[in-house]
Every structure is written in C-alpha cells, then in structure tokens.
Write a structure and sequence with these properties.
Length: about 300
C-alpha cells in the first residue's frame, strides 16, 4: 500500500539526498551492506531489552534501503545485480531484527510468545516471494495492506509501546497474511489468461529487403531535396527524384531532348508507314487499259 500510493512522492523527497550521496563516492551496494550491518546491533539491543537503542539502530538500518534507489538513479548505477542484492539484503535484515524480537518477547511474556515474531517472519517472507515470483512471470503483484514499509512502521511502534508489543506483532501477522492472499489472487487471475503470441522473428531476406527499402527512401528524399525549385524546374516526379545520372536541371534538359527525339522517331515511323502503304496499293487506272490492249492483241 505504501509503495503504490506514496512511492513517487517519497522518491521526489529523497532525490536530493541521492545527489548528495553521489558526490561522496558511495555506491548503492554500499548502502545495502550498511543496512544489513546495522540490523545486527539493532537486533542485539532489542533482544537485551534496550529498546530505545534498538529503535534508533532499527531506524538507522532501514534508512539505507530508503536512499539506495535514489542514489542508483542519481549515479546511473541501476542494474539487475543491484536490485537482486537489495532484495536479498531486505530479507536478511528482516530475519535478523525479528529474531531479536523473538528473543525479547520470549523473555518478557514467556510461554510460546517467541512463535509470534517467527510467524511474522514466515508470512512476510511469503509476501515478498509472491511478488518476486509474479515479477519473474511478468505479472505485477505489488498490492496489499502490509508491505515492508508498513511493517517497519508498526515494529517501531512496538518498540515504543513495549507493553503492547505482542498484540502489535499479531496485527502485523494478520495484515501480512491478508496481503499474501491478495497478491496470490492477483497473480492467479492474471496467470490464467492465455499468453501473448511470441513475436515472429523476420528472416534474413526480409531484413535485407527492409534495409534496402530504407536506404532507397533516404536516397530519394535527398534527391528531392536537391531538385530545382521554381518556374523552370521540371514537374515530373520521376525525373526529379530519379536515380539516373543527371538529376535536377540537367535531368530536365535530358528529358526535353529525349521527348524531342521520341517525337522525331514517331514522325519518321508515321511517314514510313504512309510510304509503304502507298507502294503496296495497286493503281487500277494504269492496269485496266493494259489488260484491254492485251486482250485485243490476242484476238
């Protein structure tokens, strides 16, 4: 709930701190390791009953987890390895601190009181695991009432109001169990949907054809940009963007000469066709008298 509603606002607040930490030369992994290291004396102080010291150290161990993300963004060191180390470090810190709580409640309340912090540890690990598994499947499982931020706040109240510590631990357990159920249902519903079809990888022929088409489009765009503009420019799109030598003004003159030559060829072909037709057509006025003269001679 905290991450979903207030994460963006918190990031805006702690981003100046990330810029300041970047100038110190620290890396996000250093802050994660510092949080793990501070959780050990915090757990020892809580287990020994020095709750005020344990509260201060517990808050100090949680602060590096608040600033390591802003430092990673400010320094440009965001990576999968850093995210993995941060997630594992959170689980280690939670285990150490809740072990200190288990030791303290066992000494103070007796009986089976130590099982309550252990139950909180188990269900909190389940909440984190469901989210991690959902992210691995490509499903967003970030939802619920009791995430790590809320759990840290309630544990701080348990250290302040030590008389009600056992009841506050029960509250964390109940809300964490509800959160685990919410995340499980969310992942279950989204995982039931059919997977999206895998994209078809283009073959080598298609890739070469696309590259050739993009290269040709680029050349034609550059030719059109170099084409002459104005009243005397050629309006023929083919010759203004042609790949043949002599584009632009020279291309326009070449086109005019080509059209004039084509017209002469058409005129010559029409004249030749008329001449051939005239040679092949018989002259009946000359043939008829000849036939009559031949007939008279035979008679």
């Amino acid at each position: 709930m905290f991450d979903a509603r207030f994460r963006s606002a918190v990031d805006r607040v702690v981003s100046p701190a990330g810029q300041a930490l970047r100038r110190t030369g620290l890396s996000p992994d250093h802050l994660t390791a510092l949080g793990i290291a501070l959780s050990i004396p915090a757990a020892l102080a809580i287990a020994s009953g020095r709750l005020v010291v344990g509260l201060v150290l517990f808050i100090a161990s949680a602060l590096p987890d608040l600033f390591d993300g802003s430092l990673a963004k400010a320094s440009g060191r965001t990576s999968q390895r850093g995210a993995f180390f941060d997630s594992v470090g959170d689980r280690i810190s939670d285990t150490i601190v809740l072990a200190g709580f288990a030791w303290y409640v066992q000494d103070r309340f007796g009986g089976h009181a130590a099982l309550v912090p252990l139950a909180v540890l188990g269900v909190s690990q389940l909440v984190s695991y469901i989210r991690a598994k959902g992210d691995a499947l490509g499903i967003d499982a970030q939802t619920g009432l009791m995430e790590r931020g809320e759990r840290i706040v309630v544990l701080c109240f348990a250290l302040v109001f030590s008389a009600e510590m056992l009841w506050l631990l029960w509250v964390i357990f109940a809300l964490s169990a509800i959160t685990a159920a919410q995340r499980f249902v969310k992942v279950w519903r989204q995982a039931n949907k059919p997977p999206a079809p895998a994209p078809v990888e283009p073959t080598a022929v298609v890739l070469r054809w696309r590259a050739w088409r993009e290269e040709r489009a680029g050349r034609e765009a550059s030719w059109r940009a170099r084409a002459p503009r104005g009243p005397g420019a050629s309006t023929n799109g083919f010759f203004s963007g042609s790949r043949r030598p002599g584009g632009g003004a020279a291309g326009g003159r070449w086109h005019e000469r080509r059209m004039a030559r084509r017209k002469r060829l058409l005129d010559d072909s029409d004249f030749g066709a008329e001449k051939t037709a005239g040679e092949r057509t018989p002259d009946l006025s000359d043939q008829v008298p000849t036939r009559r003269h031949t007939g008279r001679g035979r008679g």
